Amino acid sequence: MKKWLTFDLDGTIMQNPFVKYVFPEVQRNIIDKCSYEYNVIQELFNEHYLRVKNKRTVEAYDWDDIVEQHIRKQQLELRINIEELVEKHSTLPKVYLLEDESLSVLEYLKEKGYSLAAVTNGFYKYQYPVMRELGLTRYFERIITPDQVGYGKPDHRILQTLTKDGEIIAHIGDRLDDDVQLANAFGIYSVFIYRQLPYHLLTIKADQRSKDVEIKKILESKWKRETQNQLNSLTESAIPDIIVSSLYELKDIW
Question: What class has domain 2-16+93-253?
Answer without folding.
Answer: alpha beta
